[in-house]
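Hi P.,

Sorry for the delay on this. The queue was packed all week, but I finally got your sequence through. Input first:
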Amino acid sequence: MNTRTLAGGLAAGVALLLVIPVVILLTYPMALAGAIQRGVSTSTGFELTLEGLEVDVLPLRIAAQGVQLQNPAADFDDPLLAVERANLDADLSGWWRGSSGWWSADVEGVLLYVGHDGEGRDLWLPAEPAGSAVDDSAAEDLDQSNSAGLAMAFETLRLTNAELRQVRDGKATSMVVSELAVTKHTDERIELALTGTLQEQPLQASGTLALPTSERAQVVDFEAKMPGGKLSVKGTV
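Then the structure:
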């Protein structure tokens, strides 16, 4: 066997090893869901359930249905987080172009609990998961490797039919978000629009925001109406 034939065989073998996982992922994405659920349980101690998962590679799109997150350590029967549907679109082409990518999310039907259980324990305080101890130097290396990777810029977020419930002394107060839309423009302006209720009273917010870290977007024009008052902010940062 000559060198050219050997190199061709190795290249074909590597290509096959790359193609097989992609084919499995596209034809049976729930195999990935199982790995995600096990990873969450091992690293955090929470129990994650996914009823459905769909994955498209080019362009990258992940759609999840029936997401539930529970804390076995809390004296609380309901899932701390339940999501009917969540879609994530992302552009990872920056990996080979040397530029940043972007991501957008569309989430519907969310129920989130915060507060304390009947024993006064924080609902989001997990038990110590197995294998959770991480060497400090290893964690530092991981942070450095992540920071050196692909930068992912936020583009749009849309949230509909979401409810936040705060549990205290066996009672729950809620904030309902009928719709939240957040868009980051190319000039780094962040546009926000929110409609919902807070303790059954109307809640509205809209306007343009600018992050203090932005070098281009500096104008703020934001207004919010909530139970008991109104907030209006105009100026520059």
